[in-house]
Write the structure tokens for this entry.
Amino acid sequence: MTSATLTVAAARRGNPWARRALILAAWLAFALFLLLPLFVVLSEALKQGLGTFVDAILEPDALSALKLTVLAVLISVPLNLVFGVAAAWCVSKFEFRGKSLLVTLIDLPFSVSPVIAGLIYVLLFGAQGYFGEWLSDHDIQIVFAVPGIVLATLFVTVPFVARELIPLMQEQGTQEEEAARLLGANGWQMFWHVTLPNIRWGLIYGVVLCTARAMGEFGAVSVVSGHIRGVTNTLPLHVEILYNEYNHVAAFSVASLLLLLALVILLLKQWSESRMSRLNTPADEE
Amino acid sequence: MSRRISPVIPGFGLTLGYTLVYLSLLVLIPLGAMFLKTTQLSWEQFWAIVTAPRVLAALRLSFGAALAAAVLNGIIGTLLAWVLVRYEFPGRRIIDAMVDLPFALPTAVAGIALTALYAPSGLVGRFATELGLKIAYTPLGITLALTFVTLPFVARTVQPVLADIPREIEEAAACLGARPLQVFRHILLPALLPAWLTGFALAFARGVGEYGSVIFIAGNMPMKTEILPLLIMVKLDQYDYAGATAIGVLMLVVSFILLLLINLLQRRIEAP
Amino acid sequence: MSIRRFALAALAAALLAGEASAATELLNVSYDPTRELYQEYNAAFAKHWKQESGEDVKIQQSHGGSGKQARSVIDGLKADVVTLALAGDIDELQKLGKLIPADWQTRLPQNSTPYTSTIVFLVRKGNPKGIKDWNDLTRDGVEVITPNPKTSGGARWNFLAAWAWAKKTYGSDAKAQAYVQALYKHVPVLDTGARGSTITFVNNNIGDVLVAWENEAFLALKEQGGDNFEIVAPSLSILAEPPVSVVDKNVDKKGTRKVAEAYLQYLYSDEGQRIAAKNFYRPRNEKIAAEFAQQFPNLELVTVDKDFDGWKSAQPRFFDDGGVFDQIYQAQ
């Protein structure tokens, strides 16, 4: 063995002490910042046994909150999915002026405070808002009702799918699409048979993150909800209400229901990610 | 206006049009309504609101805590990304999967969990109190809550870039006698910096606006532990719509400039 | 066969239609600590209304900080009745929303306030810090929990009670302000609502004394067991009047005025008063008040109308932007 290969091998392994220290530090950070909060939620929920936990989740108000949360997710995720694909398409396949501005606008809801996200819809559709009178004359209720909750959820989840797809589609370029076109496919055929299969896993990843956020949004929904028990409460709002009713165990039980949903979502994400990297690896080596 | 990368790819008008209409309806017009509401104020009134001592204190706190959390995440996130990419160790897949937990966990749940953890009677709070350290209801508690909520940003932006850096370059540098620190400074740092900055800025922007997780642990003391989004809520509860939107506009402008800078930076780095 | 199917369908349709039309829905928008009170009262009223008129009524509840709740109603939350922490918040429904007439408070007996409360202290068992009156709150090493008067109605009553005591004890507004300023220096957490403060004190174990609604303090004792806390009544406090009103514009639109008015009227009935007392609100009806006299400590009470010239003057003076409360914090 030459000394050069020895050095390479050493460099590849790295300093074993540094390595161990870093892994330990990562584990510590992970345990302290991620595992502990998780542990607290679950242990508080199960404090009085599985029975109270199940009761808290099956209570009618909790179920109606779950229904509303699912409804908000079912409306907002597909809409943002279609938007994300369209936005990623025009941003990644074309060059045009103002592209940076457009991408920034797509990102904007990410960094707008959730409180503002709720507030703007109250300013528009509230009784004192710009469309308030018209809506009231036509008996349409938007804020403090389900449409307002859906709107607020839509707003905070706008960027997720687009954010995931833009870098992916940029990386993939346009060659395959061009080939499809030259072989006579029309636009939709090209999209269905070439583009969609290519971005499938990125799409799932985006949808998964979008779902997670839509499910868990608190600040924005809180501003437009009106907090009517059993009618306009989503699961996160229901957690707050229970917490405020000295109902600690129930609050943490519903919280852990959300937590379990979050974990399922993370599992889905991990799965789509591993599929994505498996699909990408051979391509990288070509 | 458009320059197609390729002449045969269709759908520019359709997708751009749809994107613009959707964004306008959902994001731009509503945000515009907020700006419109602020125009009820004269420039002097607007200035008086956003420079009131209480608003300035909240501004300092929100931006300060978000900055501290972003820095903390700059370190923890890089550490996590490095360990996940470079080492094989027990539990690697679990950590990898769970880094995104703060994204998926509802912020209100995070809020009550962190309060239960860091309050003086909590699991961590008890130890901290014995050491004479107060976490919950102080800026430190706010910073920790923000760190939790924004934890994935740096880790997730740095991770793929780090995975793409060919190990051979570092190895070559090491063979040529570079010390680990030199390798880091001259090879890794320049490659990682753009991604790191993006993650940092996203974490920062998200931290400034965060409400649900902070509100339980903040203590909400005027001038001390009152964050900007809470101040908006407080103004609203006093029927001061114009004042609330003034603070909203201030936050929005800052976030927008920040994001625009990131995107310009990214494009400059991407375009050689 | 087909006739039978038709009959079944008709029956099902009749059942569905019947169900849809029978239950009137009322929305009561209330403040934080009344959750338990209205849970019990709503059931009682629904039963009463069924006997009275044969109609089913379903009452929905919304709770939150009093100011926030008033704003939601102004912004379009379709409340049939509001039951808030103070008259000032209901005044805003008239001023900003034009939802109720200006004389709303004269429509029901006793300033439209079917029950009252006051402000007391909740301390930890055995009263380890020896807290007996307001002056004990500003002693070294005492931590006081009270919510933010900007967002919480209860906190405004707390503030005024402290002010009234200091003014009577020390004689001047300047000294009262100095006392209140010192008091808020002892507050480590200002929650946004009364219930938030109670949770901070009771569950998170912060602070030595909770300044709270009397009903909230009693409820905390009941929920958390009397072993951990006790109530201390100060030498002077304030008569807290949380009023109620029908929201005229909403009930007229929905056609629920009759049942909404009956809902509030029934609060004054013997049963309504008894439920209020059982939930630790002081009943207005003297007979019922006598039944529960044991329960409530006897203390000297000032009123916002006599001692602070009503909410219309107290609100801007103390709590609006630039008011006394802001001055206190900016001076620190």
Remarks:
- Chain A touches chain B through 102 residues (CB under 8 Å).
